Amino acid sequence: MKNDPVFDLIAEEKVRQSEGLELIPSENYVSSAVLEAMGSILTNKYSEGYPSFKGLTFVDSKLEMPEVEIAKEILPNYRYYGGQRNVDRIERLAIARAMELFHADHANVQPHSGANANEAVYWAWCEPGDKILAMNLGHGGHLTHGSPVTRSANIYNFIAYGTTPDGDIDYDELERLALEEQPKIILVGYSAFMKIPDFDRVAEIGKKIGALLMADMAHVAGLIAGGVHPNPLEHGFHVMTTTTHKTLRGPRGGLILSMGNVGSPLKKTPEKKLENIPILIDKAVFPGTQGGPLEHVIAAKAVAFGEALQPEFKDYAAKIVENAKALADRLAENGFVLQGGGTENHLILVKCEEAFGVDGKFYERALDMVGLTLNANALPGDKGGAFRPGGVRLGTPAITTRGMGVKEMKQIADWMKEVMDICVKAKTEEGLDEYKAGLEQIRQEVKDLALQFPVPAIG
Question: Which pTM does this prediction carry?
Answer without folding.
Answer: 0.96
